[in-house]
């Protein structure tokens, strides 16, 4: 499937996920449609606990306050189960939701599947209405978009707060 383009409404989905709150794991469904009202970063990654994915998601975790200051949440999505995600989140001390797309429907809807690997390392920045405002889809490889790069894009959204973003009134 083709990737959603900048300016298009992001494909809707509902996936099971897990979020660590202290030592408690909260399992619930995450729905894009129900998230409207604030920006969202969707970070697709190939595999729990792999070196590149651990580095990527730990980078986002270390800068989580910066995402929150911009009014944004981070949801990370891969094809592993919520049990795998919970184990990964505990080992890496990740406090944002890890969503399980075991069938690959969301990966396909976003055009980020990669034969033999499963998922291209990809990031989509959605505005408060669920419209794609920025994206980076890797061809292959270990590199990822840093939290700072993503936060720069979030700060450019209309109505962004923090980090000098334009307000809705300007």
- Sum up the overall morphology in one term: globular
Strand order of the largest sheet: 2-1-5-4-3-8-9
Evaluate the radius of gyration: 15 Å
Quickly give the CATH architecture.
3-Layer(aba) Sandwich
Averaging pLDDT over every residue, what do you get? 89
Task: Map the helices and strands.
Layout: E1 14-21, E2 24-31, E3 40-44, H1 51-62, H2 64-69, E4 73-78, H3 82-92, E5 98-100, H4 105-109, E6 113-114, E7 118-119, E8 122-126, E9 132-137, H5 147-155
Parallel strand pairs: 3-4, 4-5
Antiparallel strand pairs: 1-2, 1-5, 3-8, 6-7, 8-9
Mind explaining what this structure looks like?
It is a single chain. With 170 residues, the chain is α+β, with helices and mostly antiparallel strands. Helix content is 25%, strand content 26%. The chain has one domain (16-155): Glutaredoxin, CATH 3.40.30. The protein contains five helices and nine strands, in the order E-E-E-H-H-E-H-E-H-E-E-E-E-H. The strands form two sheets. Strands 2-1-5-4-3-8-9 form a seven-stranded mixed sheet. It has a two-stranded antiparallel sheet with strand order 6-7. The longest helix has 12 residues, at 51-62. The N and C termini lie far apart (37 Å). The model is unreliable at 163-170 (pLDDT under 50).
């Amino acid at each position: 499937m083709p990737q959603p383009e900048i300016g298009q409404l992001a494909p809707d989905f509902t996936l099971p996920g897990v979020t660590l709150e202290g030592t408690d794991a909260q399992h619930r469904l995450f729905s894009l449609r129900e998230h409207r009202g604030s920006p969202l970063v969707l970070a697709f990654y190939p595999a729990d606990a792999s070196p590149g994915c651990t580095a990527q998601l730990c980078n986002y975790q270390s800068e989580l306050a910066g995402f929150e200051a911009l009014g944004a949440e981070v949801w990370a999505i891969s094809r592993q189960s919520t049990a795998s995600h919970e184990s990964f989140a505990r080992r890496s001390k990740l406090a944002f939701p890890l969503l399980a797309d075991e069938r690959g429907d969301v990966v396909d809807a976003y055009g980020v599947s990669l034969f033999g690997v499963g998922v291209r390392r990809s990031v989509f920045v959605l505005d408060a209405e669920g419209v794609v405002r920025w994206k980076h889809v890797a061809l292959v490889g270990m590199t990822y978009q840093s939290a700072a790069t993503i936060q720069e894009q979030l700060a450019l959204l209309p109505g962004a707060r923090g980090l000098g973003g334009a307000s809705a009134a300007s």
